[in-house]
Amino acid sequence: MFGRGIDKSKGLLFCTHDLSQSLRNTADEICREIESLQPDRLLNTAPDDLKNYLAAKYRVEPISLLRDQWYADHHETQVDVRYDSSRWIDDKSRPCMVPGERVVVRVPFEGEAELFYAQPNTSTSNPPRAIIEKNELVLRYDSPADAPRDVRPLIDRTLADIEQYLGWQRPMIDTHNNGLSVIAEQAIQQRRDRLLAQSQRAASLGIPVKRRDDAPKTYAIPTARKRAIPALPPASAAPFTPEPTWAMEQYEQALKIMQDMTLVMERSPDAFKTMDEEALRQHFLVQLNGQFEGKATGETFNMSGKTDILLREGERNVFIAECKFWKGPKAFGEAIDQLLSYATWRDGKTVILVFNRGTEMATVRTGVDASAKAHGNFKRTVNWPHESGFRYVFHANGDTNRELIVTVLVFHVPK
Question: How many structural domains comprise the chain?
C-alpha cells in the first residue's frame, strides 16, 4: 500500500507520499484480491470469514512509540565542522573533521514503519528528521569535543514533533480501518451475485458445460504484505452448486410463532406446569403447522439423530428446533452437539428452545452464552436484540464454511 522507493538515508519524515491517497488505494487492492479468487474458491468460502480475513489483512497498524523502552549510546567520532559559523574554514568544498562525540537515541515502536514517510492531511513546513531501522526510531547528534552541546532538549523537541505527526495520522487510519469490513462485504457480495447469475444463465442453456482442463484448481495466497498476516479461510475449490435457502423473514416468523406460544403459557400457567419436553413441543408444533401448511413434524429422523421439530420445504430440511429443559451449562453444550450432529450444511437455520423451571433467568442466560461461545463449532455472535434470547453462527461438523444460524430462546415455564 505504501511507497517503497524512499531514500530513507536522508531521514526526512512524513513528507514522501500522501497518506490519504495510500489509504484510498486500499479499496482497489481489496477488490482486486476478491476478483483474483477462483469462482468456486470464492463461492465455497463463508462470506463473513472472507470479509474478516480481508479486513484484517488490509488493516493499517498506527505507530506507537515505546518511550518506556528507549535507550541511548555515545561514542567518539570525527565531526565535520566546515559549516560551523564560529570557525574560520578556508575551503568548505570538502569536509573538515575534528574529534568529537556522537549520541545515539533509539526508541522502539509498534506499527507499520512506512507510516513514518506518509504525510497526513495536517502538516508543517518543517517536518522532523530521524532514521528508521527495523522497529526502532534512531536519533543521532554529533558534537565537536571543543564545543559539546546539551542534546536532551533537541531529543525532546524532535520526539514531540514526531508524536504530533502520528497524532494527525491516527484519525485517518482509524476511519480507514473502520471502513474495511463494509468495502470487503460489498465487493464480495457483488462478485458472488455476478457469479451466481452467470451460473444460472449457463444452466438455462440446457447444454452441458465442460470445465477447462487448464482451469486453476487452487488459489495461491499472496506474499505477506506485513507481519502477522491473517490466513485466507480454508475452503474447497470443488465446483460450487447453488442451493435454495429458507428466507430470513420466514425464519423470523417461525421464531415469533414460538415466542407468541410462550405468552399463552404465561397467561394459563396451570395448564402447562406439569408438562414435560415432549408435551410442550407438541404445542409449538401445532402452532407451526397452522402457519406453515402442516409441514412441521415431530420426532423426524435427520442425519444421525432425532430432532424435536423439523420443517421441510420439498425434500429439504430448512428449519430444525430442539426443546430442552435447563439442566446446566454442560447439558446445554450437549444439546448443541446433538443439534449439530444431525444438522447438515443444508440446514442453515436452527433454534434451541430452553425451558426454565425454578432457576434465575439471569443465571440461565449467562450459562447459555458461555456454553455457546466455548463450543468448538462456535464462529461468532450475531447482533440480535432480545431480552431472553441469543443468536450465533456455528459451523457444520467438519466444514468451517458451512454455516448455521443457531438462535437460542429461553422461556420461563410455570412450575
Answer: 2
Can you tell me the distance from the alpha carbon of 53 to that of 173, in angstroms, rounded to the nearest whole number?
A: 18
Residue that finishes a domain, picked among 242, 272, 301: 242
Region 36-46: mean pLDDT is: 90
Residue 210 forms beta bridges with which residues? none
The arrangement of strands across the sheet holding 316-325 comes to 296-302, 305-313, 316-325, 349-356, 399-412, 389-396, 378-381
Last residue of a domain, one of 194, 225, 242: 242
Indicate if the pLDDT at residue 195 is higher than 60.
yes
Q: Give how far Cα 10 sits from Cα of 38, 75, 129, 175, 269, Å.
A: 44, 22, 8, 31, 81
> 3-state class of 118 per DSSP?
strand
- Cα–Cα distance between 256 and 260 in angstroms, integer? 6
* Cα 217-219-222 angle, rounded to 5 deg: 160
The domain containing residue 107 runs over which residues? 1-242
Q: How far apart are CA 410 and CA 405, in angstroms?
A: 16
- DSSP β-ladder status, 17-18 and 118-119: parallel
Task: Report the range of poorest mean pLDDT among 1-5, 10-14, 192-196.
Answer: 1-5
∠ CA 25-31-36, nearest 5°, is 125
Please tell me whether residues 332 and 230 are part of one structural domain.
Answer: no
